[in-house]
């Protein structure tokens, strides 16, 4: 652990409180979110095998009427569409039908944003355009039930390694890889991802930035546990977001709510299942603040971390009004981590503050390490534990934390799948 001076009590049993101090129901997404309806087709495209389909698909998207979608369908003997970067116009959607797969061509030159660094290592990691970009759009979406494959495991054209091998090399050399994100949503509103399978992203799978109104319903995100920087879903500086009925297994954060350039608020994470990955995270960039987050009915199985808030003095801010409720964890190494010194070497004056954090109806089936580490005596954590059950043999780390409620050492049973 980074905190050598933390207490090592196996179980912290705090005085039982009647939890009247909980701040009522914490608000997530302020919208009334219902199951999306797939738009009608404006054009149906047939799979053409190994051919480059970039222009084939982009031309159809550009010609599509607002409110409708381009459908990608399997053909006899072929289910694949290979493509370079695509852009969804405002109001236009893309549907990948059952049996069809849209694959990103593993050619860095196609994704290079003009600096001739895509597919290389440098200090910024910002040299690639995303595979699918939704920018300055309203009412666009991506629909299944087919698949979008980023081919993070494919050897890059003109290279001797895959995107994921490049990421591993970046870690070993303490630098950054230039690899494309799978789906990037910027400055947009009312965007939908529905019943689509996203897999093998070269980098993050879905990122929203400075957007308002985003629904991810019934999607699957999948990448190997050792595929570095393959976050599942990262809402950054975004408002009114719902992730519901989804399954996410990755090599990094399953979800990471961030607020580096703008605040993130009113986010609902509802009825999801997370497999391998680094867990349900907030941070590490929280400069502009994160608030009004609800995580309800979540199963975490085999994640490295369970429920985590992470930051440090170089990128900290306020995280407030967060409720985790009806959570089940099994084979999770670190079930709860509230960490204000994520990078122990970080310097700066952006001190993380985590307040009004509630954990209610948690069942942790296997022993793990729990960390509650505030920044200082003047800036402690403030949280409530209500009906939290952990397993025998768990380790408890606590420093600069004001904790109300109880923990019971009787976790057991099974998580319903």
From TrEMBL:
<keyword id="KW-0732">Signal</keyword>
<dbReference type="Pfam" id="PF00295">
    <property type="entry name" value="Glyco_hydro_28"/>
</dbReference>
<feature type="signal peptide">
    <location>
        <begin position="1"/>
        <end position="27"/>
    </location>
</feature>
<dbReference type="InterPro" id="IPR012334">
    <property type="entry name" value="Pectin_lyas_fold"/>
</dbReference>
<dbReference type="InterPro" id="IPR051801">
    <property type="entry name" value="GH28_Enzymes"/>
</dbReference>
<protein>
    <submittedName>
        <fullName>PbsX family transcriptional regulator</fullName>
    </submittedName>
</protein>
<dbReference type="GO" id="GO:0005975">
    <property type="term" value="P:carbohydrate metabolic process"/>
</dbReference>
<dbReference type="GO" id="GO:0004650">
    <property type="term" value="F:polygalacturonase activity"/>
</dbReference>
<dbReference type="InterPro" id="IPR006626">
    <property type="entry name" value="PbH1"/>
</dbReference>
<dbReference type="InterPro" id="IPR000743">
    <property type="entry name" value="Glyco_hydro_28"/>
</dbReference>
<keyword id="KW-0378">Hydrolase</keyword>
<dbReference type="InterPro" id="IPR011050">
    <property type="entry name" value="Pectin_lyase_fold/virulence"/>
</dbReference>
<keyword id="KW-0326">Glycosidase</keyword>
<comment type="similarity">
    <text>Belongs to the glycosyl hydrolase 28 family.</text>
</comment>
